[in-house]
Structure to design on (39 residues):
């Protein structure tokens, strides 16, 4: 049974061939910055 793209995204990294991309381009994920809270 073929897996859906959403299922593949949960298992394989974004640059994995199984994602269905013809050109593999590594996309750096921006690190979430913690909200600055001043007490």
């Amino acid at each position: 049974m073929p897996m859906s793209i959403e299922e593949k995204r949960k298992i394989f990294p974004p640059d994995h061939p199984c994602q269905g991309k013809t050109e593999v381009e590594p996309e750096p994920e921006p690190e979430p910055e913690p909200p600055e809270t001043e007490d």
